[in-house]
Amino acid sequence: VSADQLDVEAYAAQYSGRTRVARLLFIAERCGVEAIQLEALRMAHDEARAREDTVLYLDAVLKINSRLGPRYRHDQAWVDSVNRRAEQRKEKLETELNGYRTNLIKESIRMGYNDIGDFFYAHGHLSEAFKSYIRTRDYCTTSKHIVQMCMHVILVSIELGQFAHVTNYVSKAEQTPDTLDAVIVAKLRAAAGLANLETKKYKLAARKFLETGPELGSNYSEVIAPQDVAVYGALCALASFDRSELKSKVIDNINFRNFLELVPEVRELVNDFYASRYGSCLEHLEKLKPNLLLDIHLREHLGTLYNDIRHKAIIQYTLPFISVDLNTMASAFKSSVSMLEKELAALITENKIQARIDSHNKILYARHADQRNATFQRALQTGNEFERDIKAMLLRANLIKHDFNQKNWPGQRKMNL
Amino acid sequence: SRPVSSPPTRRKAASRTAPDQTPESEPSSKGKAPSAAAAAAMESVEALVAHIQGLSGSADELAQLHGLLKQADGDALRAHSAGLLPFLSHLHPGAHSLGYLYLLDSFVSSSANLRAHAGGDLLVTVADFLTSCSADQIRMAPDKFLNVCRVLKNEVMQLNAPIRGIAPLRAAVRKIQTSSEQLTPLHAEYLMLCLLAKQYKAGLSVLEDDIFEVDQPKDLFLYCYYGAMIYIGLKKFRKALELLHNAVTAPMSSLNAITVEAYKKYVLVSLIQSGQVPSFPKYTSSTAQRNLKNHTQIYVDLSTCYGTGSYSDLETFIQSNAEAFQTDNNFGLVKQVLSSMYKRNIQRLTQTYLTLSLEDIASSVQLNTPKEAEMHVLRMIEDGEIHATINQKDGMVSFNEDPEQYKSSEMVEHIDSSIQRLMALSKKLTSIDQNISCDHAFLMKVSSSDLQMYFSFLPLCCPLLFSNKCE
């Protein structure tokens, strides 16, 4: 599915809540094709209007820039009326909350803060929502309350981009004494995976996504769709796992298979990679690339992940051989020989491949360090360093022993040379 | 003028004087008729000389002589120092070193005397003395000995003939050292002369000894600096780096100019040797760590520029700062840093390629033509920096493995001697450690800090007892 074939409606249908609008706006921003841009913006506008979210509405209208006709122009009247109503509701909620606070009924206070939090969230005031949700913590009495609070905080933090909080509250939620509902567990795993992905901890992210149970389904559509779990998990795993982990955790993982079924292309490319069909694997990756670039969470990391996967493929390719003909390898990886040679040189310099390139004949030779010579060399070098360091240290000790102080120099001795 | 004749007492000791006694000469009296006091002084000098000849035998005699000399030192000798020179001919520098030293020191301490005898035999006299004097005797008056050496150094510098000072000073260093591990002020002077005379190998004989005892920090800094310059001249960059490292990391409470210059060279030699400048180890004094880089900013910038790996950038940087490097007298070294960049890049290639065309080498190392690449590779092969063969027909270079197999008998000997050396060093270290552990001051310090730790924990345990009224 390439960029100009992206079905914006179907994509947006996977999500609900604020993330739907946010993702649509993101697509509109990054996609180069005008038709899709406008489609996305149109849907974003409608959604924002339906949700009475003025912040997102204004954003959408700004980006539409009157390109879609009169219906999509800036409607200040509507904005004002929504804001007025929102203001009224807010006052009402706050009065109620104050009432509860004076009455000192924990449960009511908690629900009051929750309601306010929900209100702020719905209207796009994320940091206030965050604060309100956090305040419910003092009034939680059961572990269910705590879990509910954690889930709210996680939701807001993801949108705010504060992934440290996400990880924090995921572990808080997981530590509650009661056993959690399977859906909630799955949600927590997915959220944790997302946090790790955004903080570039790809291996941990892969593990979390792979542990996400199929119970997730579309229950977490306000954050993440099951297809996303499959894609993120597979890509991170390919980029960071070694072969055995890949086999045990991804390919043989029955739970994860359910997710992979949703994105058959990804399933194919994982299998290709494992079966050393690197050319086809990289082809799949290239095909998926334009759409993945439009994903709000994956975009920044796509370059690194793709690079890592390609490097892993190259390293794995060369591992079983004593010598590799660069021409064959270049055709397998669908790149030119000189490009491949440069990539290999870089990998060798980083010590990821133990080999040397015969540039004249275009062959890569595996090179196994001579352990014996290397040991001698290292031993002699360590001896030299030891000698040098000890001598310097003895000298310094002597200097200190005489308690030298440069202030004492003039006139210290009769004969000052 | 008063004829110089040997007083009767001296005839007795005539047999003790050296066979190559120079003929008595007229004292340089500058035309003035000597006063009675001067005559008396001369007589006392003669008496002194007699004592010297008589008492230069055993250790007891020497001690007595030393006392007499110290008494005479001051007015008696100095006031009439001009007349002392001829008396020296009655003494043997080897047997009568202590007395000779006193007289000589007195003579050369006056600049008038030096000017009068500039370029003459004085230099030879002093040089002879330094080479033939007795180490035990001169160690009894080290300050005077050092003074005489310094005068010699100044004289050869004035004559623009530093090479004349090398042999005598080397002998002097050996004589005044109590052990080969001791650093004397002469070391720095000697090395400086070697540098000026470009006699680097001569400097090596002194540099090869490891120094463990230092009396004066200033000696150390100069020694390290000059020594490093000698090693640089011989292209022994690793040893130069050791000395510079010691100069930079020595304990110091305030920065001195020598350390700043040493650090500049340290940066340059590090770049040549290993392509990067190591950060300060933690035992470096805080003064050095905080201030050194401020005084040597262009060198720090140079090392950052080097780190980018681009030859042309480095070249531009060097050109634009050429003046500064010239004033520091470091331009030669800086040029070596520049050429080391090619070497480093080529060496990196040997790790990645088995064979590589000269064209590719030229392009990856940023040289202009394959011919230049060939030249560089050839030079590196000749210097033993890489192992490779050039195939001119194909324009290819094949990089080979280091042929050292660590099996030859030379290698075994080398390893064995290293092991012996390191074991000796290790033993030395253990003994020093034991000495420190038994040292009274150390024990006091340790126990008091332990007690301090104990007392600092008590308030945490009993907050009620230790209220805020405690300190």
UniProtKB/TrEMBL annotation, chain A:
Coiled coil: none annotated. Keywords: Cytoplasm, Nucleus, Signalosome. Gene3D superfamilies: 1.25.40.570. GO terms for cellular component: COP9 signalosome; cytoplasm. It is found in: Cytoplasm; Nucleus. InterPro entries: CSN1_C, PCI_dom, Rpn7/CSN1, Rpn7_N, WH_DNA-bd_sf. The keyword Transcription does not apply. PANTHER family: 26S PROTESOME SUBUNIT 6, COP9 SIGNALOSOME COMPLEX SUBUNIT 1. This is PCI domain-containing protein.
From TrEMBL, chain B:
Residues 236-404 form the PCI domain. Keywords: Cytoplasm, Nucleus, Signalosome. One of its GO terms (cellular component) is COP9 signalosome. InterPro entries: COP9_N, CSN3, PCI_dom, WH_DNA-bd_sf. It comes from the Eukaryota. Residues 24-37 have a biased composition (Low complexity). One of its GO terms (biological process) is ubiquitin-dependent protein catabolic process. Residues 1-37 are annotated as: Disordered. SMART domains: PINT (SM00088). It is found in: Cytoplasm; Nucleus. PANTHER family: 26S PROTEASOME NON-ATPASE REGULATORY SUBUNIT 3/COP9 SIGNALOSOME COMPLEX SUBUNIT 3 (PTHR10758), COP9 SIGNALOSOME COMPLEX SUBUNIT 3 (PTHR10758:SF1). Belongs to the CSN3 family. This is COP9 signalosome complex subunit 3. It comes from Aegilops tauschii subsp. strangulata (Goatgrass). The lineage of its organism: Eukaryota, Viridiplantae, Streptophyta, Embryophyta, Tracheophyta.
